[in-house]
Write a structure and sequence with these properties.
alpha/beta; 13% strand; binds 2'-deoxyguanosine-5'-triphosphate; 43% helix; binds zinc ion; globular; Beta Polymerase, domain 3; five-stranded mixed beta sheet; 24 helices; binds calcium ion; seven-stranded parallel beta sheet; 17 strands; Beta Polymerase, domain 2; DNA polymerase, domain 1
């Protein structure tokens, strides 16, 4: 088992012990041990092999044994037994924001709730708000949490959905009966979350394709198994439909099941206005005595052909949201969307100096492997103490390390020194002006006091935007997709302030954030807002998230010129310096 998974187990143990009301010192030993392990620079395998794990400060004797067992076997009897000793309903309750081990224990001990359903009843009956330490507000918050959890359970992050879809798509394409195969639906439209997968296959012999699909090892349940349509549920809960169509219908089916519904409705109306009815089966001429399948279908083999038949430029799937793409396609004015190949470096990344897992060298090497010209490092500032944020002195030392690294000639990638500086609750910044001024650039982010009023939060963020040391605003709503709602903030005012102050807003490309949302980019960028696609990488692997950010930029109609990291090193430096 790798280090990150072991950290998760230790944290789990701490929460479970809390649930059981165990000794606080013991609980702390696990949670702080997890923390030490997570931020430790030395390689865990090396340490264990050298018998030096017990010498690491903060990892007590009880933990050494357990970490070694987990590392060697991936299992731990103590942990398994501990989990089994706690009612599953109590563990589920931990998924509700605001409920930790202590509170769940209290609810259980005081009013006997053992499941989320029982908790909901207790909140509605007033039993929870009557409890000491809870009150009306927290009962309401728990109810919202329960409702959100039910809604979230139905959807999946795009990144996860793609990981499930790709091997299936490859498998379908590899079948001898398959002529063409695609994933349609929200996955193809690059939506931030996906409800279910929609596979479309062209084949004259559907049966073997269906049989292959429903017998894949990842399939947990087959919910339908028909002649041309099947549905399954994968482990992890994601569901998928497969439709097999004759080759001549493929372009129409692919277009129809790609959606969105709004886009389809608009395109169908356009077809009708020109005398055709458009469906997943094809195009038919509207005749006096009903529809006729006349002369059209075999001239249309592709979506491009379909769009052209209706007098439109080909609309990329990610723009098919019924938000003006048909008008733009008619006027031949679709945007020339930014691509992954346009990206020449990224700015918001963490290293071992704060809560990242890669060193400067490792991150730069990974950036070089991605073909980039530069890499920006932006570790946390001190107010993010749980992420081992840097104080002024450590920031200055980091700048020195980066300068030395650049001068060493160790990498062809130029490293920019940055910071992800906390915006404090009053809108002031977490570091001295002189420190901020010594950096190449800064990313300002909110990591605390999420429950401020909309007025307070908006004023707080705008105050940071107006600070002359600010280069970029990080994850502007703080949302965690399918887990945490955005904090209350008036983004229209924030966007206005960013444009007025020439401050960049990021697309945080972490697949769980994708913040700022794609729906806001088109208008904002038209009005002059500059974007930066920031993977917020906490490891070398995390740099790969930039792709998810490019998706969101494309969904937001952005072109290369509207994205800072499509510029070369000199272009980036020019932008940084005009802010100083
Ligand atoms: P999802 O799965 O909730 O993330 O979103 P989609 O867009 O993948 O939706 P889904 O799987 O229900 O259907 C796939 C596409 O099929 C959808 O984007 C458009 C088309 N479609 C499905 N149902 C309807 C419908 O009732 N009317 C129209 N016009 N199109 C539909
Ligand atoms: Ca779908
Ligand atoms: Ca579907
Ligand atoms: Zn952050």
């Amino acid at each position: 088992m790798n280090k990150a998974n072991i950290v998760d187990v230790l944290e789990d143990i701490a929460v479970l012990l809390e649930l059981k009301g165990d000794n606080p010192f013991k609980i702390r030993a696990y949670s702080s041990g997890a923390r030490v392990l997570e931020t430790m620079e030395a390689d865990l395998g090396d340490l264990i092999e050298a018998g030096q794990l017990s010498g690491v400060k903060g990892i007590g004797a009880a933990l050494v044994d357990k970490i070694e067992t987990l590392h060697a076997t991936g299992e731990l009897e103590y942990y398994t037994k501990l989990r089994e000793s706690v009612a599953p309903g109590l563990i589920e309750m931990l998924e509700i924001p605001g409920l930790g081990g202590k509170k769940v224990k209290k609810l259980h001990d005081a009013i006997g709730v053992e499941s989320i359903d029982a908790l909901q009843v207790a909140c509605e009956s007033g039993a929870v708000e009557a409890l000491k330490g809870f009150g009306k507000k927290s009962a309401e918050k728990i109810l919202t949490g329960i409702a959100n959890r039910a809604a979230y359970a139905k959807r999946h992050h795009w990144w996860t959905a793609r990981e499930v879809a790709l091997p299936i798509l490859e498998g379908l394409r590899g079948l001898p009966q398959t002529e063409r195969a695609e994933v349609a639906g929200s996955l193809r439209r690059l939506r931030e979350t996906v409800g279910d997968l929609d596979f479309i296959v062209a084949s004259a012999d559907p049966q073997p394709v269906m049989d292959w699909f429903v017998t894949q090892p990842a399939v947990a349940e087959v919910t339908a198994h028909g002649a041309t349509k099947s549905s399954v549920r994968f482990e992890g809960g994601l569901q998928a439909d497969l439709r097999v169509v004759p080759a001549e219908q493929f372009a129409f089916a692919l277009h129809h099941f790609t959606g969105s519904k709004d886009h389809n409705v608009a395109l169908r109306q356009r077809a009708l206005a020109r005398g055709y009815s458009l469906s997943e089966w094809g195009l038919a001429q509207k005749g006096e005595e009903g529809d006729q399948q006349a002369e059209i279908p075999d001239t249309i083999q592709t979506e491009k052909g379909l769009f052209e038949f209706l007098g439109l430029a080909e609309i990329p799937p990610e723009l098919r949201e019924g938000l003006g793409e048909i008008e733009a396609a008619e006027a031949q004015q679709l945007p020339n969307l930014v691509t992954s190949a346009d990206i020449r470096g990224v700015f918001h990344n963490h290293t071992t100096a704060s809560d990242g897992r890669g060193t400067i060298e490792e991150m730069a090497t990974a950036a070089e492997a991605l073909g980039w010209d530069y890499l920006g490092l932006a570790d946390h500032s001190k107010a993010s103490y749980q992420a081992n944020g840097l104080d002024d002195a450590r920031v200055l030392r980091m700048i020195e390390s980066i300068r030395a690294f650049n001068q060493s000639g160790a990498s062809a990638v130029h490293v920019f020194s940055g910071i992800e500086c906390d915006i404090l609750p009053d809108g002031s910044l977490d570091l001295e002006e002189s420190t901020l001024g010594a950096l190449d650039y800064t990313v300002m982010s909110v990591h605390s006091s999420f429950s401020q009023s909309e007025e307070e939060m908006t004023a707080r963020v705008i105050r940071a935007i107006e600070h002359p040391a600010t280069t970029m605003l990080g994850h502007p709503t703080g949302r965690i997709l399918l887990r945490r709602e955005p904090y209350k903030i008036d983004l229209r005012k924030v966007i206005d302030a960013a444009i007025a102050n020439r401050v960049i807003i990021e697309i945080n490309a972490n697949p769980r954030r994708l913040d700022m949302d794609w729906r806001l980019w088109r208008r904002a960028a038209e009005r002059g807002l500059m974007c930066s696609i920031n993977p917020d990488a906490h490891s070398t692997d995390g740099l790969g998230y930039f792709d998810a950010g490019v998706n969101i930029a494309r969904k937001g109609w952005l072109e290369k010129e509207q994205v800072l990291n499509s510029r070369d090193c000199a272009g980036v430096l020019r932008w940084f310096n005009q802010r100083k």
